[in-house]
Amino acid sequence: MSRETVSITDRIDAATGGMRLRRLRQADWSRRLVRENALSAADLIWPIFVREGGGEPQPVASMPNVFRLSVEDCVEAARRARDLAIPMLALFPYTDPSLRDETGSEALNPGNLVCRATRAIKQAVPEVGIMCDVALDPYTSHGHDGVMAGERILNDESVEVLCRQAVVQAEAGCDVIGPSDMMDGRVACIRTALDEAGCRDAMIMAYSAKYASAFYGPFRDAVGSGGMLKGDKRTYQMDYGNSDEAVREAAQDLAEGADMIMVKPGLPYLDVLARLAREFGVPTFAYQTSGEYAMIMAAAGNGWLDGDKAMVETLTAYKRAGASGILSYFSPMVAAMLRG
Ligand code: PBG
């Protein structure tokens, strides 16, 4: 047979052995039938920003459709989460600058904003989980997650305060304690402090691989710590060149008693997420950060991409990489869309 007489079809069949991978993609029903990973409302954790006082929600300039809510509106958000079948909210306080100090003492006030919001939500909507960050940055005048001496962030002194912060939050009704401070040994100390305070049921979702990242900018605006931050967080948050170190961080947090682990930021770190999910086989979460949210919203706002499609695609990508769930500012939007 001369070369010219072989049809392109014969040539493709010879190369593929007749296997045409496009066959399964030809209809919506067949694509749905063979889909490996799909997002559901149960995968979502919805971060919300709490502020003092009443009145209208305050927009966060760098995060379109995200607002700082009064305690009352947080309760409303919890009802919405329940109705949308979103399992958990993560609460972050915008602390008035007058309440910030060097040691973040407002973090230990059982009547502080997150504690009041937690109590109000747990009373009105107990079936929705509440997660609170353990870190001092919403409360310190320097914007760091720990206690400072000169230019240094002190590890052990910070852990002491963080343990007390965790207990204060758990006693207010917080279900999941999220140490996001990246101090060494904090998970073990927090677990012991919770147990000694009688809060044995409080779960720990450790921010295990939290990188020093440019993707937290809008969040720091939202909680009011951006302008205050002295220097950067590279002496405690991870170097983005590292992946083996993330395995060591996660192993350490699990050995110390973490119930769940997290990788943050999200999309640029899917390799780390996939690696930890496979390596440990424990509930592993991703945080789609404020910066990732802002990028999608900015591009969508300019008409440069379809925001709704990018939202579902990125969230599904986390699932594909092995995430048990995702903290995302898109949570209420995507849950409503999945329902519709
Ligand atoms: C506080 C904290 C941060 C985020 C969650 N908890 C900011 C930071 O570490 O500077 C970022 C969340 C986001 O960007 O959406 N330690």
From TrEMBL:
Pathway: Porphyrin-containing compound metabolism; protoporphyrin-IX biosynthesis; coproporphyrinogen-III from 5-aminolevulinate: step 1/4. It catalyses: 2 5-aminolevulinate = porphobilinogen + 2 H2O + H(+). GO terms for molecular function: porphobilinogen synthase activity. It holds the Pfam family ALAD. The keyword Lipid biosynthesis does not apply. It comes from the Bacteria. Gene3D superfamilies: Aldolase class I. SUPFAM superfamilies: Aldolase. Keywords: Heme biosynthesis, Lyase, Porphyrin biosynthesis. Its EC number is 4.2.1.24. Belongs to the ALAD family. Homooctamer. This is Delta-aminolevulinic acid dehydratase. The lineage of its organism: Bacteria, Pseudomonadati, Pseudomonadota, Alphaproteobacteria, Hyphomicrobiales.
